[in-house]
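Support reply, case 0932

Customer input (verbatim):
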Amino acid sequence: MNLAAAALQDAHVRLEPLAEPHREGLRAAAEADQEIWSVYPYSMAGEHFAPYWERTQKAMAKGLVLAHAVLRGDAVVGVSCYFPDPPNNATEIGGTYFRPDVRGGAVNPACKRLMMIHAFDSGATRVTFRVDALNARSRAAVLKLGAVQEGILRADRVTWTGRVRDTVIFSVLKNEWPAVRERLDARLDAFA
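Our regenerated output:
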């Protein structure tokens, strides 16, 4: 697998490798929903944004994460990341956040479709999604993408609030991708 950061675009969204020009737009997007952070392993709101930004930039520099600003028009509406696992030809797509006003529309399926196309075209045989068991909206969104729920890792992670979360694991395998892509294409056509 040779997964690299890349600009990705379709009729609904544009993904760009996360960089300094996206900082303030992402900060504003993160401030748009103060309640969501309780079901994230970290917060990007308020005083938590600067440490998030620095941590992400350092991880990107080491190749541990490939973070993408998600833009609709010229506005940063969120972020989504790859966590590549090259020895296993796999990647996780995660670290995703979208402003509340773009949830439930074309942004998430378009973003994930672009990211999965890029991952599978780069040699991935597996794309994984990890979601907090309490995050019902994200769990439903991942299932709606066409991913398969594999199981729940109990007491998997300590979140920024100190809560110990259970993590639901989903995946799409390379041989499943054509059918998943077809469903996503049809779903996105409905937004056109």
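We compared this against your earlier run and they match. Two observations from our side: The chain has a mean pLDDT of 96. The chain has one domain: 8-189. Please reopen the case if you see a mismatch on your end.
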